[in-house]
């Protein structure tokens, strides 16, 4: 746990985040604690990426089941939405007996939260594929698996990627709640900073969360443009 620097006990103590001054903006804090900030950011990024990928791996089969069995669609969408309403303060402790105090606890919880966006977008993306395109592919001898991987998923990619971007940015914010089990990345710094009224730490961790969310969104947007070149000229 990070502590505020002593008031003025030593000449080496940076004055702008001492207990007396405690500034919001403090370059000395960034220089002195850059290793701590880096480690927290790396942990935050790792948990976010793992959770979104796990959510995507769960969402695609669920979307395919909902499309194939229309009677289950309401139940699947309802369940994925209901999971998002479960408070993280309750969900993470419920997972601890099975996964322990580990990053896996946070990853599983965040993956479940991401389903409310990913399942719905995956289903809408698959339904947006024109029926005549499917019929043409079947007429050319495409098997169901080849039809899915070569035709349906590529055409559903724009809608799916839009949902993935929303889920990723949301997960960056939700990862901070992992501080409940000591694996919240930048959330750990936020929690200790708020507890100690450590302004420089709170601001630095908050800004890094925003930067991380914007950077991941930009990466996914670039990936979407590279993977769907036929949409580059489409506005809106």
Count of separate DSSP helical elements: 9
Can you give the mean pLDDT? 85
Distance separating the two termini: 46 Å
Q: Provide the structure class.
A: mainly alpha
**Helical content (DSSP H or I, runs of 4+):** over 70%
Report the CATH superfamily: MetI-like
Annotated CATH topology: MetI-like fold
Highest CATH level, the class: Mainly Alpha
**Unreliable stretches covering 5 or more consecutive residues:** 6-10
* Rg result: 22 Å
- The shape is elongated
Sketch the major β-sheet: none
CATH architecture identity:
Orthogonal Bundle
**Total strands:** 0
- Quickly count the domains: 1
Order of H and E elements? HHHHHHHHH
**What percentage of the residues does DSSP assign to strands (E)?**
under 5%
Structure description:
- The longest helix is centred in the first third of the chain and has 35 residues, at 34-68.
- The N and C termini lie far apart (46 Å).
- This protein has helices at 27-32, 34-68, 73-85, 88-99, 103-127, 131-139, 144-175, 186-196, 199-227.
- The chain is mainly alpha-helical and 236 residues long.
- The protein has one domain (28-228): MetI-like fold.
- The protein is built from 9 helices and no strands.
- Helix 2 (34-68) runs antiparallel to helix 3.
